[in-house]
Amino acid sequence: MANKSPVTDLTNKTEIGKLDHIDSLRGIAILMVMLVHTAQSVPELPRWALTITKYGQLGVQLFFVVSAITLCLSADRKSGESQGTKKYFIRRFFRIAPLYYFGIIWYFLFRSAQTSLEAGTLQTADSYTLINMLANFSFTHGFYPPAHNYIVPGGWSIGTEMAFYLCFPLLFLMFKKMDQGGVFRFLLFFLLTIGCYYIFENWVVAWMGTPVEKNNFIYYNLLNQLPVFTLGMLAYFLTRNYGAAKLPAVINLLFLGLFSWLTIFLWHTDSFPQKTFMFVPFTAGLAFVFLYHLFAQIRMLNFSILQRIGQVSYSMYILHFLFAWYGAEYLNKWFGGYGRPLIELGIYYLLTIVLSFALAMLSEKFLEKPGINAGRRLIQKMDKTQP
Length: 387
Hints:
By secondary structure, the chain is an all-alpha fold. It has one domain (6-385). It has 16 helices and no strands. It has helices spanning 6-10, 20-39, 47-54, 59-77, 84-119, 130-137, 156-178, 183-208, 217-220, 222-242, 249-268, 280-297, 304-311, 313-319, 321-335, 341-385.
């Protein structure tokens, strides 16, 4: 087995969040996501600008890859912990739930207020039915089309992430088993598994009669996004045990470009009888694995403001719609339509970043950290009650 890479040593840090390149990549991911959503509020953008900004939505897949890597780091660091699986689920719940629950309530009130003002009478916003709200509170909305992406804007990714959290302990054990046979067998098993998985997915999609199309429910569902998470896990094991982090930067850059091009090709091609958009998350994930290695190698890419944005990226994700969509909608009434959409995009995007970051700082203090600390207290209480 190859010597452990520098990334292995990083697992000994007391806080995973102190890995600079991971925070930086989260920062890149949220900036990508905010770009696509801000562009949706700017009318008459040139076609080339729309084409570029649309790829910002793949920032979610970058989040997924980084999430899988950090979960693997944490699982290794906490291996042997008593009641480890139970504590793992507690940590995940208290990391995600408080802010997401706030988002459910906030957007319900905000959108209902908008609807009431437009109608001139007190009304509830569309889609905020009891079952849709409960699906989001229980994080099952990723499996229920009417609720999966409206109650909280962009909430589909949270539902998919939480579904992956349920799968992760079993997947981690599977990857550890696969890892025992050496790098060749490891990669072979991974490729065979992914191939069989896509055959299975294609069968399920055909049985349902709903093909994977651009940004439809099946595209967003864990069924189509799970391979992206497994790429993050693959990157972790290859880096930890087989020196993948030591690949020359030029090789990482080459494969980053190659898989980015393949993603763009699959996004737009109609050359195949099979719907190719289902593979876009996977090929984007492959590109992001090499981006991860670049950021791990080149320290100058990890500047402090990008890391700080990454540290509050979850709050920025939940809250940035207030500015990218609703704030920009009001700004359009004042200076939209002056024939300078690129300038408008630049202004709106900068405002979205700055205001979302400011609000995220408050959210981190009053929602995220208290939630994380509540989970820690519950775990400490479990440890005290153990015989």
